[in-house]
Amino acid sequence: MTTTFASVVPSVGNVIEANRTAGTGTLVGYLPVGFPDLATSIDAAVALVDNGVDALELGVPYSEPVMDGLAIQKATQTALAAGFRVRDVFTAVEAIRSRVEAPVLVMTYWNPVLQYCPDRFADALVAAGGSGLITPDITPDSAAQWLAISDRTGLDRVFLAAPSSSDARLAQTVAASRGFVYAVSTMGITGARQDVDAAARSLVGRLRAAEARNVCVGIGISTGDQVAEVLNYADGAIVGSALVTALAEHGVAGVGRTAAALAQGRSR
What we know:
Elements: H1 12-22, E1 26-32, H2 38-50, E2 55-59, H3 70-81, H4 87-97, E3 104-107, H5 110-116, H6 118-128, E4 132-134, H7 144-153, E5 156-158, E6 160-161, H8 167-176, E7 181-184, H9 199-209, E8 215-218, H10 224-230, E9 236-239, H11 241-263
Parallel strand pairs: 1-2, 1-9, 2-3, 3-4, 4-5, 6-7, 7-8, 8-9
Helix pairs in contact: 2-4, 2-11, 3-11, 4-6, 6-7
């Protein structure tokens, strides 16, 4: 008999809290939906969880990915060329949640949500078993519609905080976020880097001062050592480009091996 987890939607905040109590950090893994095709992207996401990833961030392929690095841009372009449609996101979330218990967040620029209809998008995500949205290109002061919809549906809403943000903006971001605050460790586009930006530690400290309970650091993390470094001061580490590259070069088995290596940093 196949175990189905989708009936109980997990909260990423609860996962972070449980890991904190257990003395470990949280590893969040990003992959775009539909790369290299829909079925493989679903299998790859499941492989992440099977190999130690605590929460999933599924990217919505978009024609103007202004914040994404080269590896993710190439992957999303492949997905779009293969015929990706926004409704595929809900198919993927439902399929993944039927196989794993981990929370599934959707990372999306706001324009695809607007084109689909925000209320319709949120309702479909809830029905599929999704936990919430990460919205990199809107700030709380421009997100009144999304704040109202997420309050209605109970979806988590994750906003980004950057080192360049003022203290007032950070406080606003903390107040509006639910699940965690996404601390962008480097300025500019995403992509694996040799060193995690030292600005991340300072940014997390500022977010703590603004009373953020859960802070996850993303952009630039590509090794288990970097995961461990980030988890010394943050609640979670978010990895994207390294996983996308592994999937592109070595398939589902390869992305699983990469996830397992990254997960070793959770408890160091």
